[in-house]
Amino acid sequence: SQKIEQNSEALNIQEGKTATLTCNYTNYSPAYLQWYRQDPGRGPVFLLLIRENEKEKRKERLKVTFDTTLKQSLFHITASQPADSATYLCAPTLQGGANNLFFGTGTRLTVIP
Amino acid sequence: NAGVMQNPRHLVRRRGQEARLRCSPVKGHSHVYWYRQLPEEGLKFMVYLQKENIIDESGMPKERFSAEFPKEGPSILRIQQVVRGDSAAYFCASSPRRDGNQPQHFGDGTRLSIL
Predict the structure, then answer these.
(1) Cis, peptide link before residue B8, omega less than 30° from 0
(2) DSSP β-ladder status, B110-114 and B10-13
(3) Of the partner residues B41, B45, B100, the one whose CB lies closest to the CB of residue A32
(4) Are B45 and B30 in contact, with CB atoms under 8 Å apart?
(5) Which of B66, B85, B102, B107 could form a disulfide with B6 if both were Cys (CB 3.0 to 4.6 A apart)?
(6) How many CB atoms lie within 10 A of CB B80?
(7) Nearest CA in chain A to B40
C-alpha cells in the first residue's frame, strides 16, 4: 500500500536559517506532489505543486524539489521567520483519477526568534 | 470569493446521538472531499463526492457514517449513534476538477467532541 513519510515530527531552527523538510513515498508513482501548511485549529492551506517532470519549483522564499528516482521531495524555506512556524504536509498525487489526497503525517516546524 | 465554509466549528454530542457536519464548497467547485484528523495523527481521507454522487467512500467506516452532496445546498457528513472514538476534527475540501494537479481548498474543520 502507499506509504508517505515525512522527516521527524518536529523541527526547530533559528530565525534566518533555511528549513529543509523531507517527504519520502513508496509503493506508487505520483505525477504530482503537493505541499500544504496547517496552523493549529485551521485547515490545510495549499502552498506549492510540483510535477514529475519538474526538478524544482520556487515561490518567494519557498523551494520544492521532486526526485522521482529517490522517491523524495524536499521543501525548503529560506530566511525563515517565526511566522513560518506551522505543520507542513506533503501529498504525492496521481495523474487523473485522483479521488483524494494521501497526506504524510506532517512535520511541525518551529522557527525560534 | 468565499472559501470552503464548514459549520459548526465545534460540535458536542453525547454518546448515541447523531452528528451532522455541513460543508459549503468554494463557489463553482463540484468536487467535495471529507477528511478526518484524530488527535496527534495525520489527515485521513474518508469520502469523495461529486454533485449528487458518491464517487469514492473507501475511507469511510462501513457503519454509522454517511455523506451526501445534493444538487442544492451543502455537503453533509452524518454520523449516527456517535461513540467516543468519533471525537476528531473533520475537514472538508473542494476542487473544481478531479485531477491530481488540482490543489484542494480546505475549510477550517468541525471539531467534534463526544461526551
Answers:
(1) yes
(2) parallel
(3) B100
(4) no
(5) B107
(6) 13
(7) A105
Average pLDDT over residues A9-23: 94
Grid coordinates belonging to B52: 449528487
B101 with A104: Cβ contact below 8 A:
no
pLDDT band, residue A28 (cuts 50/70/90): confident
Q: Which string of b and e fits B13-41 if b means at least 16 CB within 10 Å? A: beeeeebebbbbbbeebbbbbbbbbeeee
Q: With 0-12 CB in 10 A as exposed, 13-18 as middle and 19+ as buried, what is A58?
A: exposed
Q: Which residues of A touch B91 (CB under 8 A)?
A: 43-44
Residue-wise pLDDT tens digits, B71-99? 999 999 999 999 999 999 999 999 988 77
Query: What does the block give as the cell for B107?
Result: 475549510
Residue B115, C-beta contacts closer than 8 angstroms, at least 6 positions apart: B12, B13, B14, B15
pLDDT band at B108 (very low <50, low <70, confident <90, very high): very high
Q: State how beta strands B88-95 and B31-37 pair.
A: antiparallel
* Residues constituting chain B: 115
Cis peptide, bond prior to residue B96, ω within 30 of zero: no
Backbone angles phi, psi at A105, to 5 degrees: -75, -15
Q: Which phi and psi angles does B86 have, rounded to 5°?
A: -80, -10
